[in-house]
Predict the structure.
Amino acid sequence: MGQPPQPNHANGMRRFTRLTNGFSKKIENHVAMVAIHAVYYNFARIHKTLRITPAMAAGLSDHVWSLEEIVQLAA
């Protein structure tokens, strides 16, 4: 028997891509969603290979950001 498919970054982006292509009627909304995704991906998501966030690995942050911190930044 083969192994089940492993989730990866491309699989995680599939839903994001489908939603933005279908619902971003204005370029400003699309740009905002891409920015929010980039902040979440780099500051709030712990990556398996790094075992920390990319922002922490680069020395840009000293902690994993919460969604509340991201929302406050966007407001």
Notes: The chain has a mean pLDDT of 81.
